[in-house]
Amino acid sequence: MNFSIEVKNVSKKYTIGKLAHSPYATLRETLASRTADLGRWLSGKAPNGCPEEVLWALKDVSFSAKPGEVIGIVGKNGAGKSTLLKILSRITEPTQGTIRVKGKLASLLEVGTGFHPELTGRENIFLNGALLGMKREEIKRKFDQIVSFSQIEKFIDTPVKRYSSGMYVRLAFSVAAHLDPEILVLDEVLAVGDLAFQKKCTSVMRDVANQDRTVLFVSHNLQLIRSLCSRVVLLDHGQVIQDGPTEVVLPEFVKLLQSNGEVLGNGLRSRGLGENQVARIERVQFLNQSGAPCWTFDSRESAVLEVDYTAFQSFEGLSLWLIIRNPLSGDVVTSIKEKITEKIIEVGQKKKIRMEFPKMALGPFDYAVEVTLTNSEGDQFYDHLGKESDLPLLSVTSIEKDPHKRQGYFAMPVSIREAA
Amino acid sequence: MSTAQVSDEILIESRASLRQSLRLRELWSYRELIYFLSLRDIKVRYKQAVFGVAWVIAQPLFTVLTYTFLFGKVAKMASDGLPYSVFVFSALVPWTYFTSAINKGSMSLVGSGALFSKVYFPRLVIPLAAVMSGLLDYAISFLCMVLVLAYYGIYPQWEWILGVPAVTLWIFILSSGVSFWLGALNVKYRDVGHIIPFIVQIWMFTTPILYSISVIPERFQMWVRLNPMFGLIEAYRSVIFSRDIDWLSVNVSLALTLVVFLSGTVYFAKTERSFADII
């Protein structure tokens, strides 16, 4: 088979416990434990050492990648994504299993590795390029391209410690973008830089894939994975749970994230009471057509939002204000503010508000949800769940494969026909 | 852009054999990185120092002045019939390079932890670059020595053209070997970092740098010769002062150097795979 990476039964074991306290042994500890071992050996006793605590960061992981494939690797925190990338990049070795890599592999686990603040942009380009495995001739040849891509021509002979963080990242990514590898391994590096630069990075990744090269890409940005990757490998607890086309695996991942959704919602209850707080939102939960808790919807599905609250003071009149935002830019996508009641709510009462949406008429994206309870005029806040809350993102998907068929935040109801 | 590059297939697995861990051909392909890293070291060192190179000249000169006063004038050490300052300078130049190389080389690995966990390259590059970055200081203090020697009427000889680079290469190999050992040990046992200054000090006093071997009683001389730096310093002085080379001492020290270098390389190759996990 024609593969560029073949991962076969790879496992990685970490010993934690004692090691977790001191990452490096001291000579004295080693000598002491060696002496103790010798003593036990001489007296013929079995070692009584406490069993080492072992963590399998990866367990029997297998998959292969073909040239031209862009594969997204997703999983919750601690699922083993970074360990897998580290093994692929040869930073650490697998405990078991083998990986065969065909072609030049470049990995970018961090932007600007080895950059020295005292050195100028020019000097750092050469140093960083050499670290990433480029030859001096190659760097010289691509130097102008790198500089113009990074848009910092004017500051190329300034020490990078004087750069803004945006300039720093742009320069660092530009070096990496000119590596020309056959296999590119990326870890969340695109989470940096402004939107315009992110777009540039994304287009570099697309170019790499179009040239029949392989891209492996770890990210939490589902939108990016949706738009870039043809295939997704889902990891959980160090194992491959699913491996397949993006539109099949990504909803599985979202479900996996949501299995924690209830837990997250419960966390709301432990929030402290602010001064003069009138009420507390206890639970925010979307429900799907069959009434099951859910944070992922298709654009055409109906949905229900339930908000539970407890009154800490008695108050008269209540409005609910729901804001749906783009979590990256903070832009308001849409908001709904409605009067719920004019009646008096007594101290200690627990109430539930139910909003029904005939259609989740949003474009495919992950949205941040904000919920606020106010008085009926809307000028006094009773409780507010803003961006620092731990609510899951509302993820809207579309079965459409063509992302341009419905772009943007809204899925407007439409009927189209040829009229003449 | 889309031309297929011919490159070998890489196999990543757990227990690689020694030959696989060494990957000498790969190290060779990363030689430019050694150059860039040592260049970085040098640039960073001088960029913020106001007097820059002046320090490199002042340091050995003042050291030689101090030693000449203390041991030459006050203690009146034997110096093989040479002016004492010339005698000490000729040994301090290689010795200073050696100690700065093993200091930097041994500490370089721990200092590069951030690199190890983020990017792959043959790890031997790091101590080699550190050892190499001392060469500029060495060259400057060598030129100082040439001037001081000229003041005493000792001028550069034709033999230097072959002899000086040869002994310099020797120091490079020996300090690389020591750095491989101490650097790799230091990653695992941070105590080593505290021991290094102590090792350097003891090593300096057991090597005939401030004194001539002739002041050592005959029955101890054998032990003094069992030191890779002994033959090296002797060879250096023999080249500089155009004396006959004591081949026995040189050969003993050369053999010890090879033992240190090869065993250091093997130990390094065996432990480097765990660097990223424990650093």
Taken together, the total number of domains of chain B comes to 1
- Please give the oligomerization state of what you see: heterodimer
Q: What is the overall number of helices of chain A?
A: 10
Could you tell me the strand content of chain B as a percent range? under 5%
CATH H level of the largest domain in chain A: which superfamily? P-loop containing nucleotide triphosphate hydrolases
Spatial strand arrangement across the major sheet of chain A: 5-6-7-3-8-9
Give the overall pLDDT of chain B as a whole number.
88
Backbone CA Rg of chain A: 27 Å
The largest contact between protein chains, plus residue counts on each side, is: A-B, 50 and 42 residues
Shape of chain A: globular
Kindly identify the CATH topology of the largest domain in chain A. Rossmann fold
Number of strands of chain B: 1
> Approximately how much helix is present in the residues of chain A?
25-40%
User: How many strand elements of chain A?
Assistant: 18
Q: Unreliable segments of chain A (pLDDT under 50, ≥5 consecutive)?
A: 261-266
